[in-house]
Amino acid sequence: MAPAISADSQNVTDFVVKKGNGIKGLAESGLQSVPKQYIQPLEEQMDMQNIVTHEFIPVIDMSKGDDLKLICDAAEKWGFFQVINHGVPIEVLENVKVATNSFFGLPAEEKLKYTKENSVTNNVRYGTSFVPEAETSLEWKDYLSLFYTSEKEASAFWPKECKEQALEYMKRSELLITRILEALMKGLNVTNIDAPTSTMLMGSKRINLNYYPKCPNPELTVGVGRHSDISTITVLLQDDIGGLYVRGIDGKGWIHVPPITGSLVINVGDALQIISNGRYKSIEHRVAANGSTNRISVPIFVNPRPKDSIGPLPELLEMGEKPIYKQVLYSDYAKHFFNKAHDGKKTIDFANI
Ligand SMILES: O=C(O)CCC(=O)C(=O)O
Ligand SMILES: [Fe+2]
After folding, report:
1. Which of 13, 74, 296, 331, by CA, is between 20 and 30 Å from 196?
2. What cofactor does this one take (predicted)?
3. What is the rounded CA–CA span in Å between residue 76 and residue 256?
4. Global pTM value
5. Whose CA is nearest to atom 1 of ligand 1?
6. Pocket of ligand 1 (CB under 6 A)
């Protein structure tokens, strides 16, 4: 099939970014090769020589009663783990995947209503890549990002194709999130989580619906470039396709996070690395593009509130630890992250002392 649009750069940007077709629309137009703005520099392309196959991120069974130490050890060593028997019903997970496909299945003119230019609220955003205006190479991904403020606002503004399912997934994950954060705090000898600590750990939430269309040259581009999340923790639902890679513990190589039906991937974000004074690690990760099939994922980013100031917990400093991060306003930290292309672990330098 001939491409519906010419490969001219301006045309591609117009079609994908401005007209709301997304990279999904472009991929479905029958394109034979990735347009040049999607070609990543050689050092960012996925090199299969760099895949570590003898190491695995832990899988923790939350029903066994021995999860506390396993969670803390995994967060310290790997920054990533998967949980099974976590209490979030499988139908809730299946429903949010179906809803993700429903949203991205909408015609471009419907999705266009939620772009940065058109959305009636900053808290609902449909977009493509990460920050197209700041990136030299684009990422092969479309997304819908939903910042939760209240049930009322979500009911009024979230797209009807995914509103209920996304809200249900968020609500049903709350207990799991609390349990994991409490375990992580216990690991730091913080047993009394007071109100300010609680809001710093989980005062706000953002849910993203990610869509990675099938790609004609997956080796040349990326689904998501190397980055660490800026959350305290991220709860990620992925489908059964695979493609998420996590930096190995020695900083070398990439470890695949294999899809496990019914599981959720948990990772530490920069905010928790800062709050824990470097004890828990926010590990770099990336998503490969796929040459044979579409992929979806649905992360919940558990965050401080924008107006919260974050820094190493006073309890740690009182125990004699020397702070390695300063206090930063979370909204400043987030702004720093969202104003530039993904750049691995560099974001956290913003909070270095
Ligand atoms: O799609 C995935 O598996 C991960 C996505 C991701 O890293 C992110 O949205 O921050
Ligand atoms: Fe991420």
Report:
1. 74
2. L-ascorbate
3. 18
4. 0.97
5. 297
6. 208, 210, 224, 229, 236, 238, 244, 285, 287, 297, 299
